[in-house]
Amino acid sequence: MTRSTTSRGRVVWRNAILVLLLALIGAAVWGWRDFSRFGDAPLGVSASGESIDIGRGSSFKEIVGQLRAQRLSNASPLYWRLLAVQMHVTGRLHAGEYATPVGITPRQLLASMAAGKVLQRNFTIVDGWTFRDVLAALAKADKLRHDTAGLGDAAIMQKIGAAGEQPEGRFLPESYAYVKGDSDLDVLKRAHAAMARTLDELWPQRDKDLPLAAPYDALILASIVEKETGRADERAKIAGVFVRRLQNHMLLQTDPSVIYGMGDSYQGKIHKSDLTTDTPYNTYTRPGLPPTPIAMPGKPAIMAALHPEPGTALYFVAKGDGTHVFADTLDQQNSNVACYQLKHCNP
Question: What is the per-residue pLDDT across 209-224, written as a single tens digit (0 to 9) for each?
């Protein structure tokens, strides 16, 4: 073999090695760019409201496998591992349910898992709901453990640490956040505590000389106000009517309380015979407040019961447009009833 042939061979080898090195460098650059793109590119979320539920004890490999199974990602498991190492979250991912909104990236998802930012849902108790309404809504709440199923009212109250209390009116209407696996009893316990705190806060600030002996009386009156009107500008005025009737030893004569006492026999319309049929909640036949609240009053209704509007009105009747007309005397009330209920208005 001549010297020139040997020299040419070395050149070929050097060129081959150079090409290989360049190819490896190019592949590394491409791989790094692809990996970087992966970390900040949106996952394959097809619709809002999707989530991923990571079970306790799941390995990193199982988590990535679940992401692939749900078609949220088709990236190499190596990319997920490298990203976790880069973010220093390997071995720090928490179990739980995590939201995967449209546009979420692998980096954002791993950050949420590392921080334990599990998906929260809200359960809302609506002003004016009865305890039966609350239980029915809890039974339909998504991802909530339904431990109240099959329990009676007394058993439920015992479970939440309020043994001996009647449940009606005891749960503050507002929204309560929960996560998958929480119990409906947990939600009820928090709502019960929220109502207790509200009464403890507001009762000492009540107006003087109210015919209410205890915070529970205020809760009962507030529940009546809640069911009589949903208008903020009328709550204190209606509360004032009932306070004056109590002070004057007049029957409250409030239809919502009668309806509550009718239970399942109420079919959407109240009749004259219902007003004369005695029940513990018939405020046409029994004096004073009913024995328990008739609904869950919101804080504005409680405020109205504790700070009723001064005045002389002793009666009111619905006008049919969501508002009420008030009267000082029975004659005025009868005239208003004829006009707004029977449509026999005097010119």
Answer: 999 999 999 999 999 9
